[in-house]
Amino acid sequence: MIDTIFSGLLRSSVICQKCNYQSDTHDPFLDISLPIKRKLKLTLEQCLDSFFEPELIDCDYKCSKCKKLTSVS
Description:
73 residues, 36% strand, two-stranded antiparallel ribbon, 2 helices, alpha+beta
């Protein structure tokens, strides 16, 4: 019963910066580690927004569609 309430499926998307192809993965989770900044007194909703913000990753990722090395978000 506990895992029915607290577990979920997290979708992670990788987007090629050259062709905009999006690759998705789905991972089960039982908890999420949220960034909590006490001095700013953020709400739970603000912490979740921060957790799910896209980030640019400067790397040599090989896109499965265009086959080029690129950065991803």
